Amino acid sequence: PVAVSSALSGVRVVVQLGRERYEQLFDADTDARLRALADVTGPFAAGGAAGLAPEVTRADVLFLPGGTHVPRSLLAEAPRLRWIGDTSGGPPRLDYAYAAERGIVVTDCRRAFSPAVGEMALALYLAVLRDVVVHDRALHTPDLPEGVDKERNQEAFGRTIGFVGFGGIARSLQRFLAPFDPRLLVHDPFVPDAAIRAAGAEPAALDDLLRRADAIFLLAVPTSENKTLLGPAELDLLRRDSVLLVISRSWLVDEAALIERLRAGRFRAAMDVFDVEPLPPGHAYRSLPNVVLTPHRAGGTLGSYRRIGRGLVDDLERFLRSEPPTDNAVVTLEAARLQGRLTSD
């Protein structure tokens, strides 16, 4: 690792990242802020970020990639550790009950991705609604003057929009959609109806939303309870002029049932996420003309990465003042269970 800096706070931070990823997150100014606040170990040379560094046992704070397994034995050997912060949008795998007992806060940084993912969701929606991709492909083909007829070439203004999930991505997308004056339906069992109404939307049962919405955005965090939330019966509720946008995770929709309905021309779709990534050569989606595809790039922008770094340092300042984090979301025991991140080792 790079040399450890000295800081008046005496707080020790291990940044368990390789140099390339570190430099994506922490620009020069953010790196300088971080090292002014704490004694920092990291980033690590190529290959050095594969396992947790021995310095973790002496750290107060650990920043690490999402999904990393942190054994209970390591937590037990790190008496000073009080905060584990994810750096890639998904919480680590560990014993959350033991961490809570030890007073260790675990956070994920998914809030940093919300603006970029919301922006891509809007782009995909407009691309499908106006047949942008269809016409672009046609005009790049010498013998095709246009793409398709104009039957489905629709305007975005004044549409009924359905959100399945009303977290950070949905809130960002709602702001981006505001100039189009949508009527917004929301299905999210974890958000009170009063909060949905206060945000200017209408709470809706899932079946009702699927029947009424002109466009349905799948924005929910994947959990053990919402796998294939949209199966054959739910997909059959969509109208022929509907658009389905799979934005957060493909986990939420039955892929085989969706492909069958797209092949039949039942509705149009767009997606940035898939059951298998990268999308395999020859996959059915690749040959369907009524689906717009992007390769899981919605959140992966330089702006998102910089927000992660700034947010971690902003919350480190709060940590030093014994204040709770605000830029990074605290991962509760229940959230870890639902997301399959809970271990007992």
| Cross-sheet strand order for the largest sheet | 8-7-6-9-10-11-12
For the sheet with most strands, the description reads: 7 strands, parallel
Protein structure class: alpha/beta
> What are the low-pLDDT stretches, counting only 5+ consecutive residues below 50?
1-8
* Count of alpha/pi helices: 13
Radius of gyration: 22 Å
Described by the principal axes of the CA atoms, the overall outline is elongated
Gap between N and C termini, in Å?
A: 27 Å
| String of helices and strands | EHHEEHEHEHHEHEHEHEHEHEEHEH
Number of strands: 13
The amount of beta strand, in percent, is 5-15%
Tell me the helix content: 25-40%
Assembly of the depicted chains? single chain
Mean pLDDT: 92
Report what the structure shows:
The protein has 345 residues and is of the alpha/beta class. The chain contains 13 helices and 13 strands. The chain has helices at residues 19-25, 28-37, 72-76, 96-102, 114-129, 132-139, 168-177, 193-198, 206-212, 232-235, 255-263, 302-320, 333-338, and strands at 12-15, 39-41, 61-64, 83-86, 105-108, 160-164, 183-187, 202-203, 215-218, 243-246, 268-271, 291-293, 329-330. The strands form two sheets. It has a seven-stranded parallel β-sheet, with helices on both faces. Strands 2-1-3-4-5-13 form a six-stranded mixed β-sheet, with helices on both faces. Helix 2 (28-37) packs parallel to helix 12 (302-320) and helix 5 packs across helix 7 (168-177). The longest helix has 19 residues, at 302-320. The radius of gyration is 22 Å and the shape is elongated. The chain starts with 11 loop residues before the first strand and ends in a 7-residue tail after the last helix. The model is unreliable at 1-8 (pLDDT under 50).
